[in-house]
Design a protein that fits this description.
Keywords: DNA-binding, Transcription, Transcription regulation
Shape: globular
InterPro entries: GntR_C, TF_FadR/GntR_C, Tscrpt_reg_HTH_GntR, WH-like_DNA-bd_sf, WH_DNA-bd_sf
Number of strands: 2
CATH topology of the largest domain: Four Helix Bundle (Hemerythrin (Met), subunit A)
CATH superfamily of the largest domain: GntR ligand-binding domain-like
CATH architecture of the largest domain: Up-down Bundle
Pfam family, one: GntR
Strand content: under 5%
GO molecular function, one term: DNA-binding transcription factor activity
CATH class of the largest domain: Mainly Alpha
Structural class: mainly alpha
Strand order of the largest sheet: 1-2
Radius of gyration: 21 Å
Protein name: GntR family transcriptional regulator
């Protein structure tokens, strides 16, 4: 889709009553800092429990402390960072309680969204979801686990977004980064890429066949199985 950035004529003076759309501004410095820190957390450069000192991060990124502070607040909203008045700011630790709460929330909502997507579309191809699966396979072969986690999240986002229910989608979108963070940490200890890929393909096949009950059941089983695996490898003690 082509995006219009300005409706002003070449002489710089818009005609009376003309629609004027502001030119998009480049990403702010805090957005760039946020993207850098988010990637470092997801790929393990900043591991769970790592203290995040504003001065140290600012020096490393070559910025002032202000964009770092803003980025950390945004990361806290996504669940990747914990802020405590006593211990300061740190990358979120992972334990069994976090995994169970996170995946229970997903299991309670995402399968329903998948079922609604099948009801809405019936038998139909979901090309964007297929593209995400293909990208995940390529990244798994290359051993790029952080990028693989993001590709898997894109797959899940594509299948639940097809539900058209904005409330379910907004809720699940809020869990995206934290799910990637936990899953990627688990893969470092126990690789489950191929099993998860097979489960993803089965869910998509049920959706494209127009079987809402099967798609819902497979999505729920997939989420619950992932939770059990993650608890077994990460849940014994905080990481």
């Amino acid at each position: 889709m082509t995006r219009t950035t300005s409706a002003a004529p070449l002489n710089g003076a818009p005609a009376a009553g003309a629609l004027v759309i502001p030119v998009e501004q480049p990403a702010s410095r805090s957005d760039r800092v946020y993207d850098s820190l988010r990637r470092a957390i997801l790929d393990g450069t900043l591991p769970p429990g790592r203290p995040l000192v504003e001065r140290e991060l600012a020096e490393s990124l070559g910025v002032s402390k202000t964009p770092v502070r803003e980025a950390l607040k945004k990361l806290a909203l996504s669940g990747l960072v914990e802020m405590n008045s006593y211990s300061g700011v740190s990358v979120r630790r992972i334990d069994g309680s976090l995994i169970e709460e996170l995946y229970t929330a997903r299991a309670g909502v995402e399968p329903t969204a998948v079922r609604l997507a099948v009801v809405a579309y019936g038998p139909a191809r979901h090309d964007a979801a297929r593209q995400a699966l293909d990208e995940a396979q390529r990244l798994a072969t290359a051993g790029e686990t952080a990028a693989l986690g993001l590709a898997n999240r894109r797959f899940h986002r594509e299948i639940y977004s097809a539900s058209g229910n904005r409330f379910l989608c907004e809720f699940l979108n809020q869990l995206q980064d934290l799910t990637t963070f936990v899953a990627t940490a688990g893969w470092r200890l126990k690789a489950t890429f191929e099993q998860e890929a097979e489960e993803h393909r089965a869910i998509l096949a049920a959706m494209e066949a127009g079987d809402p009950a099967l798609a819902e059941r497979l999505a729920g089983e997939h989420i619950r199985r992932a939770a059990r695996t993650l608890v077994s490898v990460l849940g014994e003690q905080p990481r």
